[in-house]
Input
Amino acid sequence: MYVIIVGCGRVGSELAKLLSLEGHNVVVIDKEQRSFARLGQDFNGLTLVGNGFDIDLLKEAGIEHSDAFCAVTNGDNTNIMAAQVAKKIFKVKKVIARIYDPERAEIYHKLGLDIISGTVLLAAMIRDKIVESHFTSYLIETGELGVIEIVIDEKFSGKTISELNIPGEFLVATLLKKKHVIIPGPDTKVDKDDIIMGVVKTTSLKKIREIFGL
Amino acid sequence: MRIIIVGGGNVGYYLAKRLAADRHAVTLIEKDSVICAKIAEEEKILVINGDGCDPDVLEEAGIERTDVVAAVTGDDEDNLVICQLAKDTYNVKRTVARVNDPKNEHTFNELGVDVPVDSTAIIAKIIEEEVSFKDVVNLMTFKRGKLAIVRVDLSKDSSVCGKKVMDIKLPGDSVLVSIIRGDDVIIPKGNTVLYPQDDIIALTTIENEQHLLEALIGKVE
Output
């Protein structure tokens, strides 16, 4: 893939190195030449100094034949503007913008931009670590779904996955048997001390907790 | 009208002052508390200290009831976001943004700003026209550059000198608006006669600008 990254801070440089290592073609744009030092000696992608929403510079960066565009500077509005230029003017297929401010993240998500808000993710992760030991909501963007981890006790031992599923509310996705990951079928049986992970509607979370005695 | 101005620099400050003088209800949003205090002290303008890109601040400024939002900060990306928030989230009818880097004017148009005002290009154009010795001076353009008000200065060689306005064959979509003769402004009528040194102000479409010039001063080399 041909990927353009705007912003060569910690996130941008890390992303550039990751993608470059996987063999993708990476172009990094930053306002400051010295930011590129973060990329290290081994980075073999292209670097361009300038503004991430400068149409001429983006053309020079090859945006017209790029597959993905990520705006990850530390300025929310710079990212918002750059992402919209990529998406609406150059019609890049995959466009991602990083936004710190949760409020603007939500607004621009609704307007159709693909947003990643580190603030929202981190807060949700830390909250889950504090409050919930078996439930995470940060993996899923909508907030309507979460992932719950349940240890099977005697009461449910011997039941099949289809007996555990509740259509519309809860679905078992993976099964951990003695540290082996299994993607279960409807007839797969669970034993005591197995760990199941399932997706759950947040509205049904309380009900699921009661059923499994969490 | 209810108007919110974001950015209390020179542009925002004078804009707010002028609009307030015309009895519009102006609210100014500015990040810097020192500038806010200064403006609030000098002018009878409601000043809010905050980030105009923050929806809470915009709501505090009464964006839900405002008619126009003008984003005139020195950062184009901020001006864009302010206008988009105003338009898409709060349904403000008219959004005006200052364009600092002329390269961004096209982007602003594409991304839904109603009126991008490119101050750099405007000043550059005025200076360019003042220093060049062209026969026609473009005073103002409208409708995204389709229509213009121009000034044509007549010399003694101009073909229309001594003629009546009704005898001049003007190209379509062009009108003579006024004639500046010395210190007088004359609204031309059919029997008004043109003289050398007259400055003619005319309204024309851009494509007819050259024809208008030829009609007034003769064939241009």
